[in-house]
Structure formats: C-alpha cells, structure tokens
Write a structure and sequence with these properties.
Elements lengths: L8 E5 L4 H11 L3 E6 L19 H6 L3 E5 L5 H10 L5 E4 L3 H6 L4 H7 L4 E6 L14 H7 L2 H9 L10 H24 L3 E6 H13 L15 H4 L6 E2 L4 E4 L4 H10 L5 H4 L6 H6 L1 H12 L4 H10 L4 E2 L4 H5 L2 H6 L2 E6 L3 E6 L23 H7 L4 H9 L6
Parallel strand pairs: 1-2, 1-4, 2-3, 4-5, 5-6
Antiparallel strand pairs: 7-8, 8-9, 10-11
Helix pairs in contact: 1-8, 8-9
Length: 398
C-alpha cells in the first residue's frame, strides 16, 4: 500500500489552482489522479517562468503525481471515452460550471446512474442553492466579496487590496480535499456515493469570519467587526538595528519574561495596558507600537539570543529563496531536488504530513500534456487504431 488513499481513482476535471490544489493533496496521499485536460491544456501550464512551452512553474507544483489525459469534451467520442472511465472511478471532481456539465451530460444524475458509488465533487464559486449560482468566480473576486480586501484596507489605512497569494482558491481546495476523504469514509459505511458542493464563497467566508466577525457575532452587535490584534498596523516583522525579526509575545508569562529580559521586571505591573491579556487586547495598537519601538534598540542577533534565553517565540523573516534552504524543511524531506524528464533539475514540495503505517511514495513529476492519453484509453478498451482516430479528429492529444 502506497499512501492512505492507495487504490482510490479520481477523475479530475479541474483547472487553474483551486481544484488542482485539492487533487494534488489527494495524489500526494496515494490516490490515482487522472487529470482530464482540453487540447489547450490547463491555463496554469502557460504561466511563466517555464523551461518548455506548456510547463509553467505553478502547473509543475500543482500536478505532481497525476496522469494527463486529453479529451476535447465538445467531441461526442471524447465524452464517450470519459464515460468509459466512470465505472472504474471512485471520485469525479470538477470546477466546470454546473450548467456546462449538464449540457455535456456529465452532471451527478447522469454519472451516478453509471456508477452509484461515485463521489461527485462540484467546486464552484457560489452554492447551487443560492441566487449567484453559476456566476463566474476567481480568487480576486472572492477575496473582495468575502471581506479580505476590506480587511487589507483597514490594516494598511490606504487602498483596498488582495492578499498576494491565491487565498480563496487554496482555502477552498483544502475544503474540497477533506470533503473527498470524508465522502469516501461515508461510502465505506453506507455503500453509497453522493454529490458534494464546495462553494468558494462559503469556504473563504468561514475562513475570514472565524477571526473577524468580532462584535457582529452578537445580535444586536457588541462592537465592530475585526480582530484587533490582526488589524493593528504594528503587527508585522519588527525592525531591529540591522534587519527584521518576527516576534510574538503572547501570554502573561511571556510578557513578564520580556520585561525582565529588557531590564524592567516591574514594567508589566506598572503599565496597566500590559498587565493582563484582556487589557493588552483592548490596547493592542499601543502595545504593539511600543514593542516595535523597543525592537529597534538591538541587533537581530542580540534580540534572538535574548529572546531564546527568555523562551519567547521568535523566528527569522525568510524570503522564498531562504525558505528553500530552511533546515527543518530539508530534514523532513518536504523540499527536495528532482530531475524532471523534460524540465530538468527543479525544487519540488512533498506532502506536509507524515504517516507511520501508510507513508505515500514519492509523487511522479507533473506530466506533459496528454502524456498518459494512449495508455488510459487503451485501459478503457480502445484499440490502437481507435486511439489514432481520436487523435486525428483532435478529440485527444497523445
């Protein structure tokens, strides 16, 4: 057994980041993921930098361990080929809009009639049960809709913005990955498959409101939205005499240790703003501003030594390049160097979990477009002549 999901076969009709991130997690846990692509390929194949056309850097990281099958589903014969794979599949996951899937007769009702045990996962922008069902959705739009842009404006005091990462996509992808695992577990108990909707709005709203519903938690409200500690402009890596350092002085014990370390052991009692967790929370902007000013009095190395001796949490501010050299990530094997058969030497990420009994094998490199089309079609019962005919009709790419 190679990984906890060994033996699970997934038909993956997702593109860009949300769905491929979810299925990357599942592939990393040992599932067989068949990435069904159009002849143009996933959009992320075309995002620079890259060494070869169609093998962009984000695509390479999101699609390790998968097989690439090209099917142009506008062709009836390509759709027929996909349907031949359904009886042997455990999971069908897509971020194609439901209306398009219905037109292609790839909706849940159609596929569950072929495979009643199928787990059908619909990654969508908005719930099919809501008024925005079927609307297009991208990470930027959902960050704005779910309040992230408002939070960034409140944090910076300037213009609203977007988090510089695909936050909504990746949060929703995590929800999709655990939904697949939970649905597979439910199937083991009931013997039945089911349809699971994973809307981006719901996923990112849960993520943001969990911290920032604030006073709106109560009806009527007891204050404004937002978690003040996260919104103060002084919550950031602190400038030292010669650089920056990430420091979090959090509980009463740590604050007492900090005041003692800087030679003012009575400071926490003398200034009421610092005396309790509740008082610090009520004055968090002033508290963090004072820390920011204090941190400028020593070098980074001096602070690290002092804080380590006082058992106060601190960490370096790494760039992506420095993160690649992180000794912990190297020791766990999460970051390794791989020789890709077409893209050469490259840094790759592993699975961020460790298993005592069912450790996953190392994932295979991200596939070129259509790399596994011929083998998968042959497995579905197509002859070599039929496969060549599908390629000639541009229903597939070999």
């Amino acid at each position: 057994m190679a990984g906890p999901l060994a033996g699970v076969r997934i038909l993956d009709l997702t593109t860009v980041i949300l769905g491929p991130f979810a299925t990357q997690i599942l592939a990393g846990l040992g599932a067989e993921v068949i990435k069904v692509e159009s002849p143009e390929g996933d959009d992320m194949r075309h995002v620079v930098p890259m060494r070869s056309p169609g093998m962009g850097h984000i695509y390479l990281h999101l699609n390790r361990g998968k097989k690439s099958l090209v099917l142009d589903l506008k062709h009836a014969k390509a759709r027929e080929a996909l349907l031949r794979l359904v009886p042997g599949a455990d999971v069908f996951i897509s971020n194609i809009r439901p209306q398009a899937l219905e037109r292609l007769r790839l909706d849940y009702a159609s596929l569950s009639a072929i495979q009643p045990r199928l787990i059908y996962v619909n990654c969508c922008g908005f719930s099919p049960r809501g008024p925005s069902a079927g609307r297009p959705a991208y990470d930027d739009l959902l960050q704005g809709t779910a309040g992230m842009s408002w939070l960034l404006q409140k944090y910076t005091g300037g213009e609203p913005g977007y988090a510089p990462t695909a936050l909504a996509d990746r949060v929703t992808g995590l929800n999709a990955a655990y939904a697949v695992c939970a649905a597979l577990y439910a199937r083991e108990k009931t013997g039945r498959g089911q349809c699971v909707d994973v809307p981006m709005l719901d996923a990112i709203a849960q993520f943001i409101l969990g911290d920032h519903m604030g006073g709106l938690t109560f009806a009527p409200p007891r204050g404004d939205p937002g978690y003040a500690r996260f919104l103060t402009r002084h919550r950031r890596p602190y400038r030292t005499k010669d650089g920056y350092l990430c420091v979090l002085i959090y509980n009463d014990k740590q604050w007492r240790s900090f005041f003692a370390a800087i030679g003012d052991p009575e400071g926490i009692e003398r200034d009421r703003r610092f005396s309790t967790h509740t008082n610090r929370a009520a004055s968090i902007d002033e508290v963090y501003a004072w820390v920011a000013e204090t941190m400028q009095t020593r070098t980074t190395a001096e602070w690290r030594k002092l804080l380590e001796n006082a058992d106060i949490p601190n960490a370096p501010m790494n760039s992506p390049a420095e993160l690649l050299a992180d000794p912990d990530l190297a020791a766990t094997g999460f970051l390794t160097l791989e020789d890709h058969p077409t893209e050469g030497r490259m840094h790759v990420m592993g699975t961020p979990t460790a298993w005592s009994a069912t450790p996953p094998d190392g994932a295979s490199p991200a596939p070129r477009l259509g790399e596994h089309s011929a083998a998968l079609l042959a497995e579905a019962g197509y002859t070599d002549e039929e496969i060549r005919a599908l390629a000639a009709a541009r229903a597939t790419v070999l």
